[in-house]
């Protein structure tokens, strides 16, 4: 008899997807009901274990989200914005908990996700690790304690394959800093400096992105004043921290009321 909630992994061939499939297959508190890939993907129709280069695990990769979600209690989704918005509506129809790790979502995407959350539980976070969510709280506290003499800059580094910037995590940290300071991030956000930018505007929150090699995810929040500087730093060295958080969210979301939640809710911090 399979243990715990049944979970669908979307984007099963991706960096996060493959780690999630392995973790759920090895878990004693949940089980894998389906591995989803897009139509035409070479893995569709193969056993997901074999497709990943290992032993068969008895779950065939499918391109049919409706049938997959109908058998699931949770959908764990680290894909791309267009896919995630579609999955949110389908997961809500199936009343499955939708755990969203996908970043790069637009305001329009977020509004669609909020609509889906009227009917089902959605847990969404740009970073699912415990350490980063703690750093977010610290960022808010430090920002609340300091005035705008302390320039806030957020520097993030990721692998060469990452397609969005600033990272979802950097934006979460920016929101936390803005909340601490009592301002609206969109009114003070300064991302992508290049050329004759002029001097830094007092009160802005700046973002800078580094892309290279296999960097998993590194974030610095810098509070720079005349004569001193504070740096809060989180370094992820292994994607397992995100996998752990996502599965914790999938379990936590069972039997909750419909709505939008984040990792602070899940972690209770
Ligand atoms: N919140 C968090 O803690 C974390 C968030 N992330 C985020 O998760 C996302 C995925 O990251 P990562 O695993 O590194 O990326 P990958 O590119 O390795 O994997 C993405 C997967 O999603 C699939 N996919 C993309 N578009 C669609 C679509 N329209 N329909 C169906 N499947 C689709 C891809 O398939 P195909 O190859 O066919 O395109 C691929 O299998 C990113 O947004 C990243 O920022 C990552 C780590 C942690
Ligand atoms: O794309 C990634 O890899 C990651 N994306 C997330 C983000 O955009 O912040 C989380 C993590 O940093 C890894």
TrEMBL record:
Location of this chain's protein in the cell: Cytoplasm
Protein family membership: Belongs to the DapB family.
Enzyme Commission designation: 1.17.1.8
Subunit structure of this chain's protein: Homotetramer.
Protein's recorded name: 4-hydroxy-tetrahydrodipicolinate reductase
Active site: 158, 162
InterPro entries on file: DapB_C (IPR022663), DapB_N (IPR000846), DapB_N_CS (IPR022664), DHDPR_bac (IPR023940), NAD(P)-bd_dom_sf (IPR036291)
Lineage of the organism: Bacteria, Pseudomonadati, Pseudomonadota, Alphaproteobacteria, Rhodobacterales
One biological process term in Gene Ontology: diaminopimelate biosynthetic process
Keyword NAD: yes
Enzyme class: oxidoreductase
Species of the source: Loktanella fryxellensis
Domain Dihydrodipicolinate reductase C-terminal: 131-267
Binding site for (S)-2,3,4,5-tetrahydrodipicolinate: 159, 168-169
This protein's record includes keyword Ligase: no
Domain of life assignment: Bacteria
Its job: Catalyzes the conversion of 4-hydroxy-tetrahydrodipicolinate (HTPA) to tetrahydrodipicolinate.
GO MF, one example: NAD binding
This protein's pathway: Amino-acid biosynthesis; L-lysine biosynthesis via DAP pathway; (S)-tetrahydrodipicolinate from L-aspartate: step 4/4
